[in-house]
Amino acid sequence: MKVLAAMSGGVDSAVAAARAVDAGHDVVGVHLALSRMPGTLRTGSRGCCTIEDASDAWRACEKLGIPYYTWDFSERFAEDVVEDFVSEYAAGRTPNPCLRCNEKIKFTALLERALQLGFDAVATGHYAAVRRGDDGHLQLHRAADDAKDQSYVLGVLTADQLEHCLFPLADTPSKDLVRAEAAERGLSVAKKPDSHDICFIPDGDTRGWLAERIDLEPGPIIDVQGRELGTHAGSQAYTVGQRRGLALGRPAPDGKPRFVLEVRPKDNTVVVGSRDMLAVDRITGIRASWAGQRLPEAASGEPFDCQLQFRAHGEIVPAVARVLGHDGEHGERWEIRPTRSLTGVAPGQSAVLYQGTRVLGQCAIDSARNAALTDAADPTPA
């Protein structure tokens, strides 16, 4: 099989490419240049896609004896990932840029070009598994190493894309074994730190980075009754669940901290309240997609049991979900009801659904609410 190995310059992608070679595939390595002005060096685990990363990818390919290329995807990355990140925050939502990069860059733009050039599959260093189900169709599953599992950020993959995905690290029990294997193979990236931050905000200051790209203007901070408690420097810089940085002069009646409950960019308002008001038991998702075949319940709208994960490496919660329908603006819409209340759920995040280790699919969270609190404030039936 002719395989294009996506080489990030890290240890995972290097070992994944090496295993593809060992499996007898005809492997070509490619590093994606995602920035027009990449930094020369990394700082620990901050950033990626630097000149240093490109050099590390080239050295790994040279060690493996496979061809190496660099493809410039910087314009596509800027439009589909960076600009999307900014526009989502400007709309008061909290996006996941890694998931968007997988969706738009690695498994759309890269895979499309690979197929056009005659490759059969794209191999990456993601910790996830593609398996064939009893019905003969491919499914996406969690990796063997729960601590490194990356199936959440791959929940956007479609059935057609799964046919051309190769994840050689799927069954590796731990990252330590991957590093040990890299050292045995003589790969220079064996001890290279993982990248944990948003790659295009390497200093980790998301608020400062956004302030340079979004027109932030002062506005009111109010409670759920509409009383003004203070002012903010720009509503788009706040996220649901945030506690720090509110700088409210008026303490809560019970003396307890307040948290951001809602961001309203249209009127530049931030709504705050007590921790218990963050509890969410109803989620509505839009732009839903299935990672493989749709469940039979999708067509009928019947509820189905599942598990919910709404952030990378976050908690996994039993839930009941159903398909609400489809519209031209928002695509397929889902309703998800976790079996217990959740906190830290914000519009813009991705909700990924599982059954056991199998990834069912994902949606973008459009609204997250507490039915009891909402219905008490609004007597209109839900």
UniProtKB/TrEMBL annotation:
Q: What is the name of this protein?
A: tRNA-specific 2-thiouridylase MnmA
UniProt-annotated catalytic positions:
101 (nucleophile), 199 (cysteine persulfide intermediate)
Query: What are the UniProt keywords, alphabetically?
Result: ATP-binding, Cytoplasm, Disulfide bond, Nucleotide-binding, RNA-binding, Transferase, tRNA processing, tRNA-binding
* Species whose genome carries this gene: Micrococcus cohnii
Q: Name one GO cellular component term.
A: cytoplasm
Q: What does this protein do?
A: Catalyzes the 2-thiolation of uridine at the wobble position (U34) of tRNA, leading to the formation of s(2)U34.
Q: Cite the EC number.
A: 2.8.1.13
Domain tRNA-specific 2-thiouridylase MnmA-like central stretches: 209-274
Q: Name one GO biological process term.
A: tRNA wobble position uridine thiolation
Task: Give positions of region: Interaction with tRNA.
Answer: 148-150
**SUPFAM superfamilies xrefs:** Adenine nucleotide alpha hydrolases-like (SSF52402)
Q: Which InterPro entries match?
A: MnmA-like, MnmA-like_C, MnmA-like_central, MnmA-like_central_sf, Rossmann-like_a/b/a_fold
**Catalytically driven reaction(s):** S-sulfanyl-L-cysteinyl-[protein] + uridine(34) in tRNA + AH2 + ATP = 2-thiouridine(34) in tRNA + L-cysteinyl-[protein] + A + AMP + diphosphate + H(+)
- Where in the cell does this protein reside? Cytoplasm
Q: What HAMAP family would the database entry show? A: tRNA_thiouridyl_MnmA (MF_00144)
Q: Which family does it belong to?
A: Belongs to the MnmA/TRMU family.
Indicate which residues the UniProt annotation says bind ATP: 6-13, 32, 125
Q: Does this entry carry the keyword Transcription?
A: no
